[in-house]
């Protein structure tokens, strides 16, 4: 799980990856929340290579951020990390997220996990870019 001690690593990664990163205070606020959150770091040899922030509302989870640091991108670590999160923490909930319309690697990752596009949010991001809203619904199959 992500802890307050991880703040500086997460903030530096956030600045490397995003043109308009979260502020250090915003990240700190997320790390300080104890209710209705799931905040996890990904590590290799005790080095943080990514992080995941989400809010939990009953049987729904909203992913705020899923990040893999630049040197580890496009090597399958995002898929491994998301798979672990879903299997260990989110297998019985509906998962929602927004992703930049132009972020094709992320969109393809989510589609490979069974997420579906449900909406376009026009000019959702502060840079004016649209977001694709996606959901992964719990599979409830009943034999009759």
Describe the overall structure.
Helix content is 29%, strand content 33%. With 144 residues, the chain is of the alpha+beta class. A hairpin with a 2-residue loop joins strand 1 (37-44) and strand 2 (47-57). It has a six-stranded mixed sheet, sandwiched between helices. The longest helix has 13 residues, at 77-89. It contains four helices and six strands. The model has no long low-confidence stretch (mean pLDDT 93). It has one domain (4-136): Aminopeptidase, CATH 3.40.630.
Layout of helices and strands:
Layout: H1 7-17, H2 24-32, E1 37-44, E2 47-57, E3 60-68, H3 77-89, E4 94-100, H4 104-112, E5 116-121, E6 131-136
Parallel strand pairs: 3-4
Antiparallel strand pairs: 1-2, 2-3, 4-6, 5-6
Helix pairs in contact: 1-2
CATH architecture label name: 3-Layer(aba) Sandwich
**Major sheet characteristics:** 6 strands, mixed
Largest beta sheet: strand ordering: 1-2-3-4-6-5
- Poorly predicted runs are none
The CATH topology is Aminopeptidase
Q: End-to-end distance, in Å? A: 40 Å
Q: Radius of gyration over alpha carbons?
A: 15 Å
Short key terms for the protein model shown above:
144 residues, 6-stranded mixed β-sheet
In short:
The chain has 144 residues and is α+β, with helices and mostly antiparallel strands.
């Amino acid at each position: 799980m992500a802890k307050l001690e991880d703040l500086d690593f997460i903030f530096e990664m956030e600045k490397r990856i995003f043109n308009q990163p979260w502020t250090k205070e915003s990240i700190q606020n997320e790390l300080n929340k104890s209710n209705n959150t799931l905040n996890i770091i990904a590590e290799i040899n005790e080095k943080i290579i990514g992080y995941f922030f989400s809010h939990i509302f009953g049987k729904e989870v909203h992913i705020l951020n899923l990040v893999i640091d630049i040197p580890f991108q496009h090597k399958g670590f995002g898929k491994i990390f998301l798979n672990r999160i879903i299997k260990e923490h989110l297998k019985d909930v509906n998962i929602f997220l927004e992703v930049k319309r132009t972020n094709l690697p992320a969109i393809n990752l989510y589609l490979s996990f069974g997420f579906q596009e449900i909406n376009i949010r026009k000019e959702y991001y502060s840079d004016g870019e649209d977001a694709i809203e996606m959901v992964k619904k719990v599979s409830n199959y009943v034999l009759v």
